[in-house]
From TrEMBL:
Residues 16-87 form the Ubiquitin-like domain. The keyword Repeat applies. This is Ubiquitin-like domain-containing protein. Pfam families: LRR_1 (PF00560), LRR_14 (PF23598), ubiquitin (PF00240). One of its GO terms (cellular component) is cytoplasm. The keyword Hydrolase does not apply. PANTHER family: PTHR48051, RAS SUPPRESSOR PROTEIN 1. Keywords: Leucine-rich repeat, Repeat.
Amino acid sequence: MEGGGTNLEVKNTKSISITVKFSGRSIAITTPQDSTVKDLKCLLQPLTNVLPRGQKLIFKGKLLTDAMTLRQLDVVNGAKVMLMASQGLHQGDGPILKEAKSQPISRAITNSKPMNETSAVGVDKNRLERWKVTGVIGLSRSNLKAIPDEVWACESSARVFDVSNNMIQELPTRVGCLSSLQKLLLNGNDLSDKSISWEGLKNLKHLVVLSLSQNHLTTLPSEFGELSSLRQLYVSHNKLDSIPAEIGLLTQLEVLKANNNRISMIPTSIGNCQSVVEVDLSSNLLTQLPEAFGNLVNLKALYLSNNGLNSLPPTLLKMCLQLSTLDLHNTEVTMDVLREFEGWGAFDERRRLKHQKQLDFRVVGSTEFDEGADKN
């Protein structure tokens, strides 16, 4: 195999091994010679992140058509096939390139005071007292590498802790002393799986909002299911490959945003989250959703763009009677497929009504603005 490609084998007594050239990579695949071009594209989907309908396969200068078999096209053992990807038809964040490039997080530094080498902020007494009185600890965009020790002195008086858009590398167990905390914003930092103390987090029994987006998480541990009061969970732009089954314990959850990860599986326990109103799973590696999605009777918005989905749970439109936003851009689920679902008519009416309301709101808003401008 050239270039460290990936092997994907389908057992068949009459199989052939071919090499697919894509973005500087060589992908080795073993497949039956009677496979169709469409079958080959489906095999390539998880290896390249390119949806089948966005793939163009070329062999000996000829564009291969989906319905024909490799045998009919004289694609033999050892053949080399070129793959070209159409712009925009990708699952996840896009095609898997030769070398993964991390996306830098822009962090504007608004604190005018210079930091020392450890980036530990000295908190004056007045500021600490203000935190205790207001219950709001605001340290976003402060160029922090560590959480100042003075924060823990707030203890049960803290309700909101915002340390977003810094360079925090550790959330210690001491976070558990902020026992009355309702809102914890940790997005846009340098947190990894091992640097977060979930033992401390799970003691925050009043936590309603938790934001861990734009970090380096690859998994959520079982302890996160103990955040029983959680209503909003933001874990987008990490490296998560799945949502754990403990999501089903968050029965008060209303918003789940886990877009731009590497998630390939959603547990059936998601059906227990019947309070959920909005779910964003766009730009992941999903090929299917569990039927339990039909249990989300309060669901209003579901974002699934840029995934490898080719079907949806059959009860989704029938049971989710408040659903009015369903984003399926750059998936294999077409409008023709949706029209076959039970409940399509009612969903389509809700969708059109919401769209019209948005248009009306924009028209009214622009009219008021114009009138105000005329008066001046």
